[in-house]
Amino acid sequence: MGDEDEDEGCAVELQITEANLTGHEEKVGVENFQLLKVTLLGVCTSLL
């Protein structure tokens, strides 16, 4: 924003700690990870 000569970027930092509240051992599949990645990219793009 502001100066047109300045490169603007979008950085998302996600820190996941142990958050399994169900007590069941669940694993995140590659499909869900890809969906999360695409969703975050869409949010980042819409902010520009």
From TrEMBL:
It comes from the Eukaryota. This is Uncharacterized protein. It comes from Capra hircus. The lineage of its organism: Eukaryota, Metazoa, Chordata, Craniata, Vertebrata.
